[in-house]
Structures are given as C-alpha cells and as structure tokens.
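About this split. The held-out portion is used to measure sequence recovery: a designer receives only the structure tokens and must propose an amino acid at every position. Recovery is the fraction of positions where the proposal matches the reference. Here is one held-out target exactly as it appears in the evaluation file.
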C-alpha cells in the first residue's frame, strides 16, 4: 500500500511538472503574438470556443483521469516535437477525450496551430 502511494505521488508530481511546462509554453506563445486573432475553427471542430490555453489545460486537468491526462500530455509533446502530424494528433485527442468531453476536444482543435 505504501509503495503504491509513493508511485501515485511520483506520478502526480510528474504530471504537474508536464502541465506547468505546457502552461509556460502557452504563455510564452501568447507574449510572442499578443495581437494575433483567435484561430478560425478548422474541419476538426464544429464550433469555435473562447477558451485560452490556461483555461483549457485547467479544465483538462480537472476532467480527465490521470491516465488520460498523461496520454494527452504525451500526445501534445509528440506534436510539439514535430514527431506526429496534426491529423494524427487530432485523432489521438478525439480518442482520449471521448464523446463525454467533446467540448474539450473542440477547444483543443481551436488551440492547434495551422
């Protein structure tokens, strides 16, 4: 029981660090391009949301279980590292969010660069 608790604490710390890094990246992008308009909804998204990155990642953190959150963070990191195409990233996010988090999926699509 104690070793499982230590593993969960370690996992939680690792996810918090990954989340903080993504927040910092998002904030730095906002400072670099503060006058750019919000992205126009693409074919992966039916509607456009007014979510900024910080609010989005907060909602993701609150609503996804730790396993889903970890998979989502890995997916974003692969995309940011140019290891995965946008279409593959969108499909992976669709599976991670599932039908119950369709709004998060749409917000994610809005946040993706062209």
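Reference sequence for scoring:
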């Amino acid at each position: 029981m104690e070793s499982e608790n230590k593993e969960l604490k370690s996992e939680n710390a690792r996810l918090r660090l990954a989340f903080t890094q993504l927040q910092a990246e998002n904030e730095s992008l906002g400072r670099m391009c503060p006058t750019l308009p919000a992205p126009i909804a693409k074919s992966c998204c039916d509607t456009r949301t007014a979510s900024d990155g910080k609010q989005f990642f907060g909602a993701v953190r609150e609503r996804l279980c730790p396993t889903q959150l970890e998979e989502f963070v890995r997916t974003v990191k692969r995309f940011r590292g140019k290891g995965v195409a946008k279409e593959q990233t969108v499909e992976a996010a669709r599976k991670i969010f599932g039908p119950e988090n369709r709004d998060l999926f749409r917000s994610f699509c809005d946040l993706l660069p062209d």
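Annotator remark: The chain is about 70% helix and 0% strand.
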